[in-house]
Design goal:
Shape: rod-shaped
CATH architecture of the largest domain: Sandwich
CATH superfamily of the largest domain: Galactose-binding domain-like
Number of helices: 5
Structural class: mainly beta
CATH topology of the largest domain: Jelly Rolls
Radius of gyration: 66 Å
């Protein structure tokens, strides 16, 4: 049993030995590592990819330049001096800060440092802000425990302040770092030197029809300020650039070392001299209407000011459909953000009709008392499309422009019209009251005026009741300065009107008409004269013509029969309504007979 235990223990120890041996075999052993930092090697005029300089106390960094050999020679392993510019005279008389950075492995140990410098005129060296040494002209410094102890794992920085007192300037160096580590220390590549681009701004920055002024802000250390309108041809900047059209302006600058900045750009796109499209107008409805019409206006999308004008009114802002209650013209225009004004759109609204048709005219063919029918003509419909009439308040009936309404009895005729949009006219009316039901009414005939123009004889067809008082006011003569002074009976069928002033109607331009009021005279049977209007008083010329016609008719014997025969022949041949009462009847014959005593004159 003891033997088995010893064997088990020996086996376990062997296993542990094997595992430990394998683990130690996988760890990389630390070894001596050397990092050489040279300032510098390369082509004159180029920049060193590891050494940087700053002119603003470390705020911004740029790669240092290689400017070739210096009269003082170079340190072994280097072939060029470095400076803040591409020549040995750049930054003369200045203190310029340089730096170089490197990375040490986490497991580094046993650090050793060696600093070899040539400086025109002097250089102050620091390692991670730990002072190392000041070297004037040239010198070599081996790092002591204090200096070497400043090294750290990760990024390290060696700062070098170059002091120049005139003439050439620059430095040439080689720094050697030795450590024990499992990996090699590495240099940190300096970023490419970039000068910030200028800042550009335009005014105004809202849409405009005018120009845009572009102002460029350059850094204080800019010694050359330039701009370009095409990115190729560069122009010196002295003041704001005025852009007359849209486009892109480029800007850059150079510092005292000739380094060119990044290019800033500014696109001017707010110059707009293009007028908006002309607004479009439409109306609803477009057919004739006696209501309102709504006008809708469509403005272009780039319009910021939508305006319209009704007729000769003032411009107004459009917020929605416009309602017109009368016909008019609507104008519309648009203004964009830059102030460009569109063409003027126009719409004429002419389909609103709120005017009623004219009141129809009604006229009777006979206005004096008559035994026949009276024909009423309907006319003057205007733009009426629906034409109607009615009698004595009955139902409305359709008519045409030329329609006549035949009245067989006295009554009222009315007419009205309506146009295509529903406007209704006023009602025209005529009262027919001259249809006589009596077959033998009391009628009047106006004989010719006497030769001196002072009397007019009125012939009646019935024997008059001379007891009926005559009143001159019931007889009316119209015409220039014609007035009646008295009315009297000349016989049982004749009334004579005496005129206040002589009046001779000797031509057709001096017509006189007679109006007689109803009840002016009465016959022996009790019939009262009806109202007569517009009976013509024959002029002297007309009576002369009538007598000549009677004389011209063939005559026979005896003389009185000849004269009567002439009247009869005239009546048969002409049948003229001589008295103007609307019919050829015995009143006309009586009037002709009154001329018999003059036929021989």
């Amino acid at each position: 049993m003891t033997k088995k235990l010893i064997v088990s223990i020996l086996f376990s120890m062997a296993f542990v030995f094997v595992v430990l041996h394998f683990a130690f075999a996988t760890v990389v052993a630390a070894s001596s590592q050397t990092l050489s930092i040279v300032g510098a090697q390369g082509t004159t005029g180029q920049t060193d990819q590891y050494t940087e300089f700053s002119l603003d106390s470390g705020q911004t960094w740029r790669r240092a330049y290689l400017y070739g050999v210096h009269p003082w020679g170079v340190i072994e392993g280097t072939d060029s001096w470095i400076n803040c510019g591409p020549s040995g005279s750049d930054c003369a008389g200045m203190d310029v800060l340089y730096r170089v950075r490197f990375i040490l492995p986490d497991d580094f140990s046993k650090p050793q440092t060696l600093f070899q410098f040539k400086a025109d005129n002097a250089v102050t060296i620091r390692l991670n802000n730990t002072y190392v040494s000041d070297i004037t002209t040239e010198g070599t410094v081996t790092g002591d425990t204090y200096t070497n102890g400043a090294l750290k794992a990760g990024i390290n920085e060696i700062g070098m302040v170059l002091h120049d007192y005139g003439g050439l300037t620059g430095l040439n160096y080689k720094i050697t770092i030795n450590v024990d580590a499992s990996s090699t220390p590495t240099l940190v590549t300096a970023p490419l030197s970039v000068l910030p681009a200028p800042t550009l701004s335009g005014s105004p920055d809202i849409p405009t029809r005018d120009t845009v002024s572009v102002t460029i802000i350059y850094p204080a250390d800019a010694v050359l300020k330039e701009y370009s309108l095409n990115g190729t041809d560069w122009i010196g900047y002295t003041s704001a650039v005025v852009m007359t059209d849209n486009g892109t302006i480029h800007a850059r600058w150079k510092d005292s070392l000739g380094i060119v900045s990044s290019t800033g750009t500014f696109a001017v796109s707010n110059i707009d001299r293009t007028a908006p499209a002309t607004p479009t107008l439409s109306a609803t409805p477009t057919t004739p209407t006696n209501g309102d019409v709504k006008v809708t206006i469509e403005y272009p999308g780039d319009s910021v000011l939508n305006k319209y004008i009704i007729g000769t009114g003032e411009a107004q802002g459009y917020v929605g459909s416009i309602t017109l209650s009368v016909n008019n013209v609507v104008y519309a225009y648009a203004v964009d953000a830059a102030g460009n004004t569109s063409g003027v759109g126009m719409l004429t609204v002419s389909n609103i009709d709120k005017t009623a048709p004219t009141t129809p005219s009604l006229s009777a063919d006979i206005t004096n008392p008559t035994l026949s029918v009276v024909r009423v003509t309907l006319s003057n419909w205007g733009d009426a499309t629906v034409k109607e009439y009615r009698i004595d308040g009955g139902d409305w009936k359709s008519v045409t422009d030329s329609s006549e309404v035949v009245m067989t009895a006295n009554g009222t005729v009315e007419a009205r019209g309506q146009d295509s949009v529903g406007n209704k006219s006023a009602i025209g009316l005529i009262q027919i009251n001259n249809i006589v039901s009596d077959q033998d009414p009391l009628k009047i005939t106006v004989a010719a005026m006497n030769s001196n123009g002072t009397e007019i004889a009125l012939q009646f067809n019935h024997t008059l009741d001379l007891r009926t008082p005559l009143t001159k006011e019931k007889f009316h003569l119209n015409g220039p300065a014609v007035s009646i002074s008295s009315a009297s009976y000349a016989s049982h069928q004749v009334v004579v009107l005496k005129l206040a002033n002589p009046y001779v109607a000797n031509n057709e331009l001096q017509q006189i008409t007679l109006n007689v009021d109803s009840g002016a005279v009465m016959d022996k049977g009790g019939k009262s004269i009806l109202e007569w209007r517009g009976l013509p008083v024959k002029s002297q010329m007309e009576t002369d013509i009538l007598r000549e016609r009677l004389k011209s008719l063939p005559s026979g014997n005896p003389a009185a029969a000849i004269r009567i025969n002439s009247v009869v022949k005239y009546m048969l041949q002409f049948r003229d309504d001589i008295t103007g009462d609307g019919t050829f009847d015995r009143n006309d014959i009586l009037f002709l007979l009154l001329q018999i005593d003059r036929l021989e004159e």
